[in-house]
Amino acid sequence: MAKKTSETPATLWLKQRKIPFSEHIYDYAAKGGANDAAKKLGLDPHITIKTLVMEDEKKQPLIILMHGDQEVSTKNLARQTGVKHIQPCEPNTAQRHSGYLVGGTSPFGTRKTMPVWVQKSILDYESIYINGGKRGLLIQINPKILVDYLKAKPVDVALD
Q1: DSSP line for 44-62
Q2: CATH number for the domain including 79?
Q3: Which one of 38, 70, 110, 152 counts the least CB within 10 Å of its CB?
Q4: Per-block mean pLDDT, blocks of 10 residues, the chain (160 long)
């Protein structure tokens, strides 16, 4: 059993919905990303999911969830979501939309409700590790929760 952490909007959101999860704490490193978190926790980076806040050409925010060891094709994401252009948000803009510091962004309990897109291969796993709402905290959950509770739409946008 992991030691208790302080509550985050993400963990509160999950508890309110009685969604099972476990907490995994690691020493956060700036710009370390999902690969660094996976390494520190002894996990496969492919099941360590990064939460990226992006925006379309109208500055409408969205979340894309991607394997920690892969990058997002923004061109394919734009095409599959029916917009002209998608780019990553500036860190301050992402923080304003999500309510989380960059490096601690979770798709759960965001300040603003945003559409969520998920790399479809993530849904093939029984459990994944995703940010729990603060730097240095991953939570282990069943990825079906992403579709069932966040209405995440599957896309295939990983760069080869």
Answers
A1: -GGGEEEEEEEEETT--EE
A2: 3.90.960.10
A3: 70
A4: 70 97 95 93 97 97 97 97 96 97 96 97 98 97 98 94
Residue 48 to residue 68: CA distance in whole angstroms:
5
> What is the H or E stretch that residue 88 is in?
strand 86-88
Question: Which amino acid belongs to residue 56?
Answer: D
pTM of the model: 0.94
For residue 39, tell me if it sits in a domain. yes
Element at 158 (helix H, strand E): none
Q: How many domains does the chain have?
A: 1
Sign of CA dihedral 11, 140, 35, 125: negative
> Phi and psi (nearest 5°) for 55?
-145, 155
Smallest CA-to-CA distance from 139 within 147, 126, 129 is with 129
